[in-house]
Amino acid sequence: MKKIKNYKNPIMVVSVVGFVIALFFFPFLFMKIEQKSEAAPQKAPTAINTSANACELTIQVSGSDIPIDLEEYVVGVVAAEMPAGFNMEALKAQAIAARTYVLKSTNYGQTQIEPTVAKQVFYDEDTRKENWNDSYEDFEAKVREAVESTRGEVIQYNGELITAMFHSMSNGMTESSVNYSGTELPYLQSVSSTDFQYADNYETTTTFTVEEWNSKLNTQSTIEEIKQIRLQKNNTGRVETVSVKGHEWTGRDFRTLLGLRSTDFQIKAQNGQVTVTTEGYGHGVGMSQYGADAMADKGSTAHEIIEHYYQNTSIEKINCEN
């Protein structure tokens, strides 16, 4: 009888055992669900994001295996391309131009960029420390402030990034894109730039012997023939073509062959030597860095500087929406 009584209600026994097991494991089950809920990622907003980091944009510099955060890259470009002693508003304008240029030329970081004058010069932290020496902390803080205060700002024309070219100093007028490359870009037109009044090294003179001249140009000209040289200049005062004894070069090619600072030059041949006097520094297209500093010293903001050198453009935040 006792044996029959012990097994009288097997369903009740199983239920009791199941209830005990459930009581034991239920807290752990609840804990796991709660932890999963806390770790679940939050959905990102769909609006334009004001932080470039939120876009997770990185730049791959040629020669380096490690991608660089966009804003950190811009710090290295501003430090390399513009004197840190320049006005803060000029440094901000440089940061906006540099950020725009790299995003346009790399398709938002999809391709590499060279850290050279052919694209944008970039200095890493070690190079900045070496170049600035005792001024490193002050200059580093100043450049970072310029970049951070313009974080995510880019230049657009009709809703698209522009090719934000820039140069050191103009000859009083910037160069248009059509004069420089034959390509008409509405935002790269010739505008006034008074930076030559502020640059100590605005005008430079280089002297060549006839032998040096012929070696660089691969010619066999005499001093008398060089005296007959003809320069054809464009509407901004820069040389379009150079002609001498059956040879002709574009102003750009001539500048490269002789290592001149710009395409605004004059040539004088006398006493067995050739003297070339050059005004300005760089290709002259887009923003003049010395001009930006001059405008900033007169009270212009970074946005006003950008709007002057890049006509009919707007400054926008990077759009992180995909």
TrEMBL record:
Q: Which UniProt keywords apply?
A: Membrane, Transmembrane, Transmembrane helix
Boundaries of every Sporulation stage II protein D amidase enhancer LytB N-terminal domain copy: 68-157
Transmembrane spans? 12-31
The keyword Membrane is annotated on this UniProt entry: yes
Q: What is this protein called?
A: Stage II sporulation protein D
